[in-house]
Automatic annotation (TrEMBL):
It comes from Corynebacterium vitaeruminis DSM 20294. InterPro entries: NAD(P)-bd_dom, NAD(P)-bd_dom_sf, Polyketide_Oxido-like. Pfam families: NAD_binding_10 (PF13460). It comes from the Bacteria. One of its GO terms (molecular function) is oxidoreductase activity, acting on the CH-NH group of donors, NAD or NADP as acceptor. This is NmrA-like dehydrogenase/reductase. Residues 8-196 form the NAD(P)-binding domain.
């Protein structure tokens, strides 16, 4: 496959690049500045300036963009809508590295994790921005997208176990009662999803 990874220099993006290369795919990094990932090819541009011509011919476009400063939080939704526009124009399958805050905590899907008292207040602005990102993607029937939420504990330096579970929209726990996944195993999961090509216009989650 030909896979492009947006924000390939980041912790999640670089892991995704490495996983895709290890599986034998042709990988291109899309970064704002110098390509510091292991991708052999790079497109140097701002995320909002990516063009349909640049991604034409790719099988998957994986968006690992993340902003944490308050004034940059709206970029989650703005960039997702821009990339959805490109998906609609080119047919590329667009995957978003989302957050856990928008996972539902009830089978009726009326309450999301970030709306519970247990959710840390300091992470709520980011989670809310990612919830809006997902909500607006749900209205895009013209684009081919998949939103992928990690577990509650998203472990940047966690080990690669080679084991993970792709679950649905509800918050779930492993047999030890934990919701965890490492960046490395999440990268394995998202590349697997890209290879499979399913879950079109759906949100899924990944945990150990």
């Amino acid at each position: 496959m030909k896979i492009a990874v947006v924000a390939a220099n980041g912790k999640a993006g670089s892991k995704i690049v490495d996983e895709a290369i290890a599986r034998g795919h042709e990988v291109t990094a899309i970064v704002r500045g110098e390509n510091r990932s292991h991708a052999p090819e790079a497109i140097i541009t701002d995320i909002l300036d990516i063009t349909a011509e640049q991604i034409s011919g790719f099988d998957a476009l994986i968006d690992a963009f993340g902003a944490y400063a308050e004034d940059q939080l709206p970029l989650h939704d703005a960039s997702a809508q821009h990339l959805a526009d490109l998906s609609a124009a080119t047919g590329v399958h667009f995957y978003v590295v989302g957050g856990a805050g928008s996972l539902f905590v009830d089978p009726e899907h009326t309450t999301q994790l970030l709306d519970t008292d247990a959710f840390p207040a300091e992470f709520r602005p980011l989670a809310d921005a990612q919830r809006k990102q997902l909500a607006n993607l749900r209205g895009r029937t013209d684009a081919t997208w998949t939103f992928v939420s990690p577990a509650i504990e998203f472990l940047a330096d966690g080990e690669k176990t080679g084991s993970y579970e792709i679950a649905g929209e509800e918050l779930s726990f492993n047999e030890d009662g934990k919701s965890q996944v490492s960046y490395a195993d999440f990268a394995s999961a998202i590349v697997h999803l890209a290879e499979d090509g399913g879950h079109v216009r759906e949100r899924v989650s990944v945990r150990w």
